Amino acid sequence: MVEEQAIALLLIGSDTWMEDQHQPILERVASFQETGKTVAAICGATLRGF
What we know:
Blueprint: E1 8-11, H1 23-34, E2 38-41
Parallel strand pairs: 1-2
C-alpha cells in the first residue's frame, strides 16, 4: 500500500489484534490518524480502541 495514495484504512475483524504480530499495522494506523485520514475497524479490531 502506498500510504500517500490511500484515503482510508479498514481493519478487519480478528481475535488476534492484541498480539505483538500486529505492531507494524498499528504503526500505520497511528500514521493515518496523525494525518487526519479515516481509520475504520470492525469486530475484534475495535478492541484496540482506535
